[in-house]
Amino acid sequence: MFFGIDLGTSELKLLLLDEEGAVVGQAGAPLTVSRPQPLWAEQQPQHWWEATEAAVARLRQTHPQAFSRVRAIGLSGQMHGAVLLDAADQVLRPAILWNDGRSHAQCQELSERAPRLAQIAGNLAMPGFTAPKLLWIRQHESELFERIRSVLLPKDYLRFRLSGEKVSDPSDAAGTLWLDVAKRDWSDELLAACHLSRAQMPRLVESNQVSATLSPEIAQAWGLGTGVLIAGGAGDNAASAIGIGAVEPGDGFISLGTSGVMFVVNDCYRPNPASAVHAFCHALPQRWHQMSVMLSAASCLTWFAQLSGAADEAQLLGEVASLPAAFLADAPIFLPYLAGERTPHNDPFAQGAFFGLNHESTRALCAYAVLEGVSFGLADGLAALQAAGTVIERLSLVGGGARSSLWAQLIADVLDVQIVLHAGAETGGALGAARLAWMAHGASQEQACAKPAITATYHPNALRHGRLQQRLQHYRDLYQRLKSLPRLAASS
Fold this sequence. Notes:
single chain, seven-stranded mixed beta sheet, Nucleotidyltransferase, domain 5, about 500 residues, globular
């Protein structure tokens, strides 16, 4: 058996994979985000470990024999988070997450201190990345900064707890702004711009290679044998790509989770930071990928369900499905910028909005507007990738949003791109992590990275696409008009 651990923002997921590539069992544990100030988003690394222990206990209870046969572990996780350890390997403060916007001023500082940043790292300086976070800590928590001996990414902190080893991989490290993405190695130049050194970074291994061995203490506590391998693992989106077999140039997918990601595989390093497109290492050697990212996607529907008093997201989707098609043209326009935005705006201060509300604006119409607004955000990401020369004809859909056929069809209509669902698409990075563990144990890429069966295909409707383009233009105009207004939240 091969065991995948996916550390998300709102949930930690586990998955068991057998040696035939079949999913045997799954378990999860919820996580919450702390927002102590405007623009801030933090989590306690200890809570990730507690969630791991709780989910493992559930998986052992439901699949005791299968779990006992685990021979390798793979890791996937939310990218960009800053876990800071002191000389005694104790966590110094809560981890600053990918959707934290406090370091906007430090992005300009980093760009000035490292003029070759975009060339080396393949990306613009944005508050979500790890490097500006460390400059913020140096300015605002200087005594703590001086105590930093190690900087780990979220999934790599779990590896440290599992093995005692400090290791990362190129796909996740590419999201720090400290990696020379073409060389797949740390850049001393970019580290020095943040007053850091290679000695404070974990060593790097490729995602499908062995990084460490499970500690005897954890193996005994979990009822496992000795010598359980731990693969390098990958950032969540690269791991999701492995999970659906997106490993060849031109393969692509949309991840509709807390954030919204459009991911396309490349066979070479192809940066285009001018349009806020990310160029990262893929989770296989000699593979890279381009990616557009919106910071709030399926989380917008969760937020609106709570705001509107709906029982859950499924109730909202049911209400939207019952709307007559003729009503949709009267729905308000929703801007999904609940946590700022990356592609294409690179605007940490962007804010969400409903526009066009009236007495006929029901909860169902507003819920439709949320689905549509997220789809329009994906359209902005597609336009940025196309501007970078990427040709996209078909995209797989993964993540929690993949459960909604209504949303899948809407995305196909908005993007004018064929959308396909794969068996197990909702497993996301956990399946990819387990597949990476399988490869670290000796499986070939061809064996471990087969594309799962297609379970549904959504073809774009030309008539609906034309109608939606008019609303998409209103959506884009609305952002341009509103961004010049004073922002309502304090910018700490």
